[in-house]
Amino acid sequence: MANRRQFITTALGLSAAAIGGCSVTVAAMSYDETVTSSRAPLRAAPRDRELVRFATLAANSHNTQPWIFSARGNEITIAPDFSRHCPAVDPDDHHLFVSLGCAAENLILAASTLGWRADPVVDGDRIVITLDEAPPAPSALTEAIPVRQCTRAAFDGKPSAPDILRQLENACREPGVATILITERAGMAEVTDYVLEGNSAQMRDKAFMRELVSWIRFNEAEALATMDGLFAPASGNPALPSWVARPLLKLFFTESGENKKYREQLGSSAGVVVLAADRSDTSHWIAVGRACQRFGLQATALGLKYSFVNQPVEVAALRQQFATRLGLGARRPDIVMRFGTGPILPKSLRRPPELVMRS
Predict the structure, then answer these.
(1) Which of 97, 142, 155, 274 could form a disulfide with 180 if both were Cys (CB 3.0 to 4.6 A apart)?
(2) pTM
(3) At what angle do helices 185-203 and 206-214 cross, to 10 degrees?
């Protein structure tokens, strides 16, 4: 264990690492330096480590990073890390498998840039990706991977041009996945009503709130200690010492306050995208993740920001009502995202490949 710890801490640039439940105690790099390191441009070698590094920059629920990678020869496998699932908000692991799909899409795009054609196959709970040599095919989406982030802030309220909307919609094209693009104010107002109703239900749910708060990192030291979770400044909130932030949370993190914030955020957005799979199973949830990630990367490449407003699909009592309103029939709405032109916020951290790769 000592040798492994030393190897990981050297790779990460830390004096102690989060291994087996232990936390990083002192960081050799600052928060910004750690973000810059994890989001450095893609390199050709070491191939597998670089592909995994880019895969981990994918969107994922609560930034839990619920994945385990293994590499052998020209095959890389992405498996779920169920120790990082969120039973309150994601009882059937839907978001977990969507997150794996997001990671797979990043890896596939990065591999193409390095001259490898990636063929993904869903094998039970795992995604097995076989790599074959091919001409390098760099793309704007791959270039967007280190830049992409979920921006939980108000946007500027300006509409997106028809050509932009077409590119965003095309990015979501994936077999077995439907895309619903909403830009009319009346339709967005209806989505807002569902988001607010879902948010109220979640904030009244003690288990949901305990789980959410457990993943909040209130300051840089707390975020560096785990390299995961929801970094408060990445949501536009100030960084505070934990001993100050946690007691104050109940005073400032309120149902009415959050509903007001979501109303402003959706009202300032250029549109909303809903993704829905043909069936509700692991392979289709992974497919939704791939479409979801491409949407985020395409938005980033076009200079747009986006964030998730998944309350209508997370609250079971609302989900079917939302599906009916969207004309989805028996299909389950999987992901809801808003987009527009907005500010740059601090980026969240990712665990380094050494902590997510297994032999």
Answers:
(1) 274
(2) 0.92
(3) 90
Residues 6+ apart with CB under 8 A from 199: 255, 258, 259, 262, 311
What span, in angstroms and rounded, lies between the C-alpha atoms of 95 and 308? 12
- Write out the two tokens for 143: 């270039």
> Each residue of 255-288: pLDDT tens digit?
999 999 999 999 999 999 999 999 999 999 999 9
Q: Which residues contact 311 (CB under 8 A, 6 or more apart)?
A: 194, 195, 196, 197, 198, 199, 201, 202, 318, 336
Position 90 scores a pLDDT of: 98
DSSP string computed for 265-294: HHHT-SEEEEEEESS-SHHHHHHHHHHHHH
- CA dist 294 and 142 (Å) reads 10
Token pair of 150 as six digits: 């979920």
215 neighbors 64 (Cβ within 8 angstroms): yes
Q: Which H/E stretch holds residue 78? A: strand 75-80
Dump pLDDT digits (tens) for 64-117: 999 999 999 999 999 999 999 999 999 999 999 999 999 999 999 999 999 999
- How far is residue 96's CA from residue 280's CA, in Å, rounded to a whole number? 13
